[in-house]
Amino acid sequence: MKLCVIGLGLIGGSIAKDLKKTGFATEVAGVETNPEHAKEALRLGIADRIASLEEGVAGADMVIVATPVDIALNLLPTVLELAESHTTVTDMGSTKRYLVEAVRNHPCRRNYVAAHPMAGTENSGPSAALDNLFQGKIAIICDQELSGPQHLALVEKMFHALGMNIAYMTSDEQDHTTAFVSHLPHAAAYALANAVQDKADRQIIFDLASGGFNSTVRLAKSAGSMWHPIFEQNRDYVVESLDVYLKHLEQFRDAIANGESHKLSELIGNANRIRSILDGENPRFRKNEETFVKFYTT
Amino acid sequence: MKLCVIGLGLIGGSIAKDLKKTGFATEVAGVETNPEHAKEALRLGIADRIASLEEGVAGADMVIVATPVDIALNLLPTVLELAESHTTVTDMGSTKRYLVEAVRNHPCRRNYVAAHPMAGTENSGPSAALDNLFQGKIAIICDQELSGPQHLALVEKMFHALGMNIAYMTSDEQDHTTAFVSHLPHAAAYALANAVQDKADRQIIFDLASGGFNSTVRLAKSAGSMWHPIFEQNRDYVVESLDVYLKHLEQFRDAIANGESHKLSELIGNANRIRSILDGENPRFRKNEETFVKFYTT
Fold first, then answer.
1. What's the mean pLDDT when you consider all of chain B?
2. Yes or no, beta carbons of B273 and A249 under 8 Å apart
3. Given CB 3.0 to 4.6 Å as the disulfide criterion, which of A235, B31, B101, B178 pairs with B6?
4. How many angstroms separate the CA atoms of A253 and B240, rounded?
5. pLDDT at A282 (0 to 100)
6. Which of B212, B248, B278 faces A206 most closely, judged by CB atoms?
7. What whole-number distance in Å separates Cα of residue A198 and Cα of residue B277?
8. Mean pLDDT, rounded, for B187-205
9. pLDDT at position A214, please?
């Protein structure tokens, strides 16, 4: 299988590495406009060769767009035009409605499978690419009825090769849930980093930062080139999630400020319920069950 | 050195384990009112024996109060009364002003050293105790001029045995900075857990939760029995920190909602500066420097 990966950063680089390792891809052509990243990707063996967009897409069995979502939005129609009739095109972006809308009436729409693997770190560039980044995680496939069955099957096969479970939903559902589970935590971390840096005594504050602080603020290290366009493309749902968060944060603040001890206990108790869900103690929420895919397809 | 640890949970248990391992303590008497925790602590070898408060404090060279801060506030005056004249008493709580005030005029005040090791996890109880939990972290000692020099020296020796660096500040400074670096991230995580659980489609949201979400919300698993009294004892500074956070979160929300692209870039860029500080790329903020203690003592 000849693979073309557009964007050799954390996500594209990690996918290319794993798909070569598992034998899913026999050859990886990388398209990368940043010359430093291109050089680094070759050095790390992420791509076998660096190609222009035209050269990379020509002859590829599968093209994976792994750029920031604003660039993906510009590229996708062109990629579909350049692609051969048998070529499967997919993308890895965190927002889906704009992309799906941009190619709704494209003559090659059925070659495209809208996807979003829920994995990543706060780092970027080819040097941030990791082995097994996707293992055991969830990949979302959106609006699958708009994709040709052979293209859908190939993308599913790719995610299984990466060790992922697959969830199927509409691009609207994906953008809504991802706003809460991924985009909101990033916004919360960015604002927390800004709030703490707002203090005059930054020096003392940061010398004292412990594991809890680092964990909560970790996502604030994430690159703006990736996250800025996500916030813009998912504006309505991200704002909704921030409004819900602001409401809960104000409740928490008021319970402390007004000495409402009973209310504060209730808020902490409810927040603690996240443990049973995240740690998989509640079978309804346990991950990697065989029934998982069924759950989303029913 | 005969050690008495009051409260054999995550903090008390971890300290007891390390101080025995390093030879700092030859005998550990544990005071623990939860019978299950007492049994577990004996089984795990955290304490050599379980004692009543009176038995535990009698004959101890050092008493460490490692209970939630509301219990510590009630216990500390009694512990100082029970302690022998040579006994050093310290505590590990995250808030310091109330404790220091409670024993300001106590005849044995100079036996007491107010301290706060900046380390922990979201888990609790003796089974949560970890080896080397404190290694490389910062311990804060407050209002050291109110402690007798021999008691201060012994507590410093204990923190060095745990592998910690020491910062010296007033209890007011400690409560203020800790509000931002530790209490605010906990409040932010609790509110984030509540915000996400507020959505009807909890099931889907939690199946999709990835590493970024888990990291940001991790502290929301922390026990209310520990955190509720911290928020109450540090009410003014925690509310201040939440107000600063709310302001920055609203700025972030408005920049997205109003499509203020330039403003959003600025906010993300400023938040990104946390990387150079937390990762120690900026020498001014590098941890574990020899100059560290000097910095706080000047």
1. 91
2. no
3. B31
4. 9
5. 45
6. B278
7. 14
8. 83
9. 86
Q: Nearest Cβ partner of B193 from A120, A244, A271?
A: A271
How close is the nearest chain B Cα to the Cα of A60, in Å?
31
The beta-carbon neighbor of B239 closest among A217, A242, A257 is A257
Closest chain B residue to A278, measured at CA: B206
pLDDT of residue A275: 85
* Predicted structure pTM score: 0.91
Chain A residue numbers touching B218 (CB-CB < 8 A):
212, 215-216
Residue B298 has pLDDT above 90, yes or no: no
Structure tokens at A38: 């291109």
Mutate to test the interface with A, among B92, B172, B196, B264 (most CBs of A within 10 A): B196
High-pLDDT (> 70) share of chain A, %: 91
- Contact between B192 and A243 under an 8 Å Cβ cutoff? The reply is no
Q: How far is A50 from chain B (nearest CA, A)?
A: 30
Element (DSSP H or E) covering residue A138: strand A138-142
The domains located in chain A, with CATH, are 2-169 (3.40.50.720), 175-284 (1.10.3660.10)
Dist. CA B221–CA A143, nearest whole Å: 35
pLDDT at residue A154 tops 70: yes
Mean pLDDT, range A129-145, rounded to an integer: 94
How much is the pLDDT for B208? 78
> Which residues on A lie below 8 Å from B204 (Cβ)?
167, 169, 173, 177, 296
CB-CB under 8 Å, B253 with A239: yes
In chain B, the percentage of residues whose pLDDT exceeds 70 is 91
Q: How far apart are alpha carbons A20 and A247 in whole angstroms?
A: 46
Angle, vertex CA B43, rays to CA B39 and CA B45, nearest 5: 115
**Do A194 and A116 form a contact (C-beta atoms < 8 A)?**
no
Q: Which residue has the tokens 């990697």?
A: A288
Could you tell me which chain B residue has the CA closest to the CA of A263? Answer: B228
Both structure tokens of B195: 């915000």
- The Cα–Cα gap between A178 and A234 comes to 9
Contact flag A193-B245 (C-beta cutoff 8 Å): no
pLDDT reported for residue A202: 63
> For residue B279, what pLDDT is reported?
75
HSE, CB side, 13 Å, CA atoms: give it for residue A238.
28
**b vs e for B92-105, b when ≥16 Cβ sit within 10 Å of the residue's Cβ?**
bbbbbbbbbebbee
